[in-house]
Amino acid sequence: MAGVAGLEARFKAQLERLSLPPGRWIAAVSGGPDSLVLLDLLHRTLDWHGRELLVAHADHGLLPESAQVARGVEVLAAGLGLRCETTRLSLDPGATETQARAGRWRWLHDLRERRAPALLLTAHHQDDQVETVLMRVLRGSGPAGLGGMPALRDHVARPLLSFRRSELGEYVAARRLVPWDDPANVDPRHLRSWIRGVLLPVLRERLPDVDARLGSVAQQAAHDRRAWDAVIEVVRLDSRAEQGGISVASGPLRSYDSELAARLLMAAARRAGLVLGPRRAAQAAELARRGQSGARVMLGDGWMAEVRFERVALVRDVPVAPNHGSSWRIQLPSPGNTARTDGWRVRCSAGAAPPRHERVGFGTWLVPGQYEVRAWRSGDRIFPLGGTGRRLVVRCMQDAKVGRGERPGWPVVIREGTVIWVPGVCRSAHALPAEGSEAWRVDVERA
Q1: pTM score of the predicted model
Q2: Torsion angle, CA of 280/281/284/289, rounded to 10 degrees?
Q3: What architecture (CATH level 2) is domain 235-316?
């Protein structure tokens, strides 16, 4: 077992180097050998790291034995005294490897958000990194993509990146783990499997140090990526998280030549998980230079760039289905309760009304009564607090710099058919509680 002890010591050292943020750890376990090693090591070092562990497994439902594999992961977790969450993804029978991977990651990130603060831990190792870099070379990826998978980024940690597949295989044998071997891993129809089983063996025969060479490419590209991340801070792009992406100030972009502006947008996009190629980045930079608020350009893979007043947003383009974001309606929850709808969270509490009320904000005070919360509609009007006459809600949204792409499904609070409040946009002069009177505090935030 000397090999097991040595690998465990290296694993601890890697966890120390990563300096992982506080919170529980969610181990993504497919049932394959690599993920079983990750889970076993995390469990063996539990007294040392002291984190709460949660096992997560996504059943793609594409193979006859997938349900049995999911059950096996549940039994394994229970035997270790760990909680396990599984899901069966709703994928079409003919779903591709890429679609399955995307569905799995969506569920894992949703789980992480529900269990926040939490960090996802995956079993990617050194051989996976080599395959990833080579695959991106073949696909014509730019320098940022050639940086490969980082050991820690965007709530995802990969503590096995410095380990070889052969080492993990020896650990599986020594610990007598019983993994499931996914047939897709050796199916040459999948690009990664073909690279692993066909291309890399040929390259290694001709160039025995090809793994080290590809590792060097990844290292240099990663240095370049970190440098561009630092440049974003120096040039003061005022990068901000947005619902479904990120935005930057368009003014600074317009002050640079088109090539530099495009490179800055590529670096900003990476922060939102978007790998933006030079051609798409140039289109987004041109949009920032000339586009009016509301102008947009599609960037592929469900992403778009949109001008939002003096900012340009790089966000996921979420199509609005019929009636979605235009007809939802709920009752305002009673004090002490919370309601969720269409990406928003509404909380209500009781207290004494303050002497003054904010016109713009995501929290307000209301006279107790019956209210409903619904999505705003074209034609909605409001009597702004401190203003004169009624204004279209859409005009108030424009004043508050709410971009066109953000407006579908934006909540409004209604009482007896009158718009009382548009969170983050405008408070009306109606239903204002007197100072010190019993009132309801309502807070609205993105879910």
Answers
A1: 0.66
A2: -140
A3: 2-Layer Sandwich (3.30)
